[in-house]
Amino acid sequence: MEGTQRGLLLVLSAPSGGGKGTVLKEMFAQDGNLRLSVSATTRPPRPGEVDGQQYYFLSQEEFEQRIASGGMLEYAQYVGHYYGTPRAPVEKWLDEGRDVVLEIEVQGGQQVKKLCPGCVSVFLMPPSMEVLESRLRGRGTEEDAVVRRRLEKAGEEIPHAAQYDYIVYNDRLEDAVADLQAILRAEKRKLERNRDCIERVLSTC
Ligand code: ADP
Ligand code: 5GP
């Protein structure tokens, strides 16, 4: 018997091209209680990206206003642009008992770990730099210079995996999705999230 629990906050990081979007698509297809935080960014939309769906696309001035008014749970600069998590929807969903995923880079991940000690952090690890490069190029969304900057950035980000609670290898997609589901499931069964059931069950005798 479960009580009404506050939702779980999941921080998912990986280098660009590491497979966050791909893995999460499968997760959302299978878990109706999971919500994705839509980030704000100052980077331009990629072809097909729609404001309010993949990101809220803001000007630098708009973004800085949101920071100043406390509207961002966390934010960071990544390859020349701001990226940040709007605070209000995350708090609302967690209060409603929804599990919320933040798909964010490592600086933001570290901020969230400090701010929200109950969160769970997962680093999605590519099998190798070669595979990462081929996936990033295969996606075909960035020009060569941007791909090279993102690969360089990946070399800086991967050591930060050591600060995450879990590492999930994104070699076979099905395995990565199953691992992430197993982590969420186990985290929800932790004692600190279920302590109240001891009294609740005893009170039924
Ligand atoms: P991210 O969201 O982390 O930037 P994506 O989810 O866009 O990464 O994945 C980058 C590319 O790699 C996409 O073209 C995707 O189809 C491919 N990809 C992701 N995971 C796998 C996997 N496990 N096996 C094969 N290709 C993958
Ligand atoms: P992309 O431009 O490929 O969509 O994202 C670039 C990087 O920014 C990725 O590592 C992605 O996880 C990260 N990112 C996306 N949204 C946020 C956010 O709200 N905060 C932080 N800190 N990083 C984010």
Protein described:
This protein is α/β, with parallel strands linked by helices and 205 residues long. It has a domain at 9-37 and 98-202: Rossmann fold. It contains 9 helices and 9 strands. The protein has helices at 20-30, 60-68, 87-95, 106-115, 129-139, 144-157, 173-188, 191-194, 196-202, and strands at residues 9-13, 34-36, 39-41, 55-57, 72-78, 81-86, 99-103, 120-125, 166-169. The strands form 2 sheets. The protein has a 5-stranded parallel sheet with strand order 2-7-1-8-9, sandwiched between helices. Strands 4-3-6-5 form a 4-stranded mixed sheet. A hairpin with a 2-residue loop joins strand 5 and strand 6. The longest helix has 16 residues, at 173-188. Adenosine-5'-diphosphate (ADP) binds next to helix 1, helix 5 and helix 7.
Topology:
Blueprint: E1 9-13, H1 20-30, E2 34-36, E3 39-41, E4 55-57, H2 60-68, E5 72-78, E6 81-86, H3 87-95, E7 99-103, H4 106-115, E8 120-125, H5 129-139, H6 144-157, E9 166-169, H7 173-188, H8 191-194, H9 196-202
Parallel strand pairs: 1-7, 1-8, 2-7, 3-4, 8-9
Antiparallel strand pairs: 3-6, 5-6
Helix pairs in contact: 1-7, 5-6
The structure holds adenosine-5'-diphosphate and guanosine-5'-monophosphate (5GP).
